Amino acid sequence: MLNRRRFVERGLFASCAALGTLASRPLHAATSGTYSGRIVDTHVHLFDPTRPGGIPWPLPGDLIDEPTLPARYEAMAQSLGVVGAIAIEASPLVSDNDWLLGVVASSPIMVGMIGDIVPTAPDFDAQLDRLRMNPLFLGVRHGNLWNRSLSADTDSPLFWTAMRQLSEAKLVLESANPDLPLLAALLKVVEKEPTLTVVIDHLPHLEQPSTAQEQRRAADLVAQLGKAPHTFAKLSEIPEQAKGQPVLDPAVYRKRLDRLWSAFGPDKLMFGSDWPNSDHVASFDATLGLVKQYVSTQHGDAQEKFFFRNSKAAYRWHAKTPSQL
User: Fold this and answer.
1) Rounded Cα–Cα distance for residues 35 and 39 (Å)
2) What is the 3-state secondary structure (H, E, C) of the chain?
3) Low-confidence winner among 9-23, 62-76, 280-294 (lowest mean pLDDT)
4) Mean pLDDT of 106-117
5) What percent of the chain has pLDDT over 90?
6) pLDDT value at position 116?
7) Residue 85: how many other CB atoms lie within 10 Å
């Protein structure tokens, strides 16, 4: 899994004209916004490059190539109102599901994890049956990472058996790194398995299609997925850079975020920081501050849903501490 942060010219509904404007305008610092309630961060990555044998991501020499474990996250995030977090897989190795479950179990702030099992693998059902016994295991991530393709896998009967098993187990299918083929495949999934909970990550960074026809298709797919009753999306991977600096003015992102808010509504959007991958672009507090500024335009109940309650509805996580109740 490589750093997938795409810059402003590739964002949803962005344009070359907008990029030129960004490059010439002053940058604005994000403030804390108006929300002061509890936050569950639905997208963090945990890993330890000092483990024997190393890890598949991040690569040596990367900015984030250092131990990234719950204690470090908690020390940074708890003072900003974060009471819980969900760890998202960062390895294609089946054995690393067990490592991540152990790390999550050791930390009160970590309420669960999304693992990595290939839906078309012949042992998917056996691995799922084993992992689902742990209540911290919340689902499976599959999409545009680890040289895989959810879109291609929809041609396999094994894939559809796996989707049915996830639905019956009340676990999540979490997508990775959206583009037009991925969204089209997800629409097939929610139409064929309407009770399956689907979470779309990094949707603000949906890769911009090259033609007007494809752009209309992308907007239509987002609208249809937003109507699916058990499909959620994360406002994650929002900050971008211009001239090597993070752009933290929420007005820059408002049009694309408004479209997503309109499509999914206040009951099916969630906050995800993408930490520490987000450190490639902006600090954790700047990322959270930017999102708070945007969401501050919504009424208080919608803000609490976005930052806290929707994560529980989507992932069905269980509280470990009183602050998570």
Assistant:
1) 9
2) CCCCCCCHHHCCCCCHHHHHHHHHCCCCCCCCCCCCCCEEEEEECCECCCCCCCCCCCCCCCCCCCCECHHHHHHHHHHHCEEEEEEECCCCCCHHHHHHHHHHHCCCCEEEEEECCCCCCCCHHHHHHHHCCCCCEEEEECCCCCCCCHHHHCCCHHHHHHHHHHHHCCCEEECCCCCHHHHHHHHHHHHHCCCCEEEECCHHHCCCCCCHHHHHHHHHHHHHHHHCCCEEEEECCCCEEECCEEECCHHHHHHHHHHHHHHHCCCCEEECCCECHHHHCCCHHHHHHHHHHHHCCCCHHHHHHHHHHHHHHHHCCCCCCHHHC
3) 9-23
4) 98
5) 87
6) 98
7) 30
DSSP H/E element including 107: none
For residues 111 and 318, is the Cβ–Cβ distance under 8 A? yes
Residue in this structure with the two tokens 């109940």, named with its chain if needed: 301
Q: Is the pLDDT of residue 166 over 90?
A: yes
pLDDT tens, position by position, 167-221: 999 999 999 999 999 999 999 999 999 999 999 999 999 978 889 999 999 999 9
**Tokens representing 163?**
């989707």
Q: Is the Cβ–Cβ distance between 77 and 65 less than 8 Å?
A: no
Q: Is residue 3 part of a domain?
A: no
* CATH number of the structural domain spanning residue 85: 3.20.20.140
Report the SS3 class of residue 19. helix
Domain of residue 156, residue span: 8-324
As for how many domains the chain has, the answer is: 1
Q: Is residue 238 part of a domain?
A: yes
The answer as to whether 1 is a domain residue is no
Q: Which one, of 95, 104, 161, 160, lies nearest residue 127 by Cα?
A: 95
In a domain, 45, yes or no: yes
CA separation for the pair 38, 40 (Å, rounded)? 7
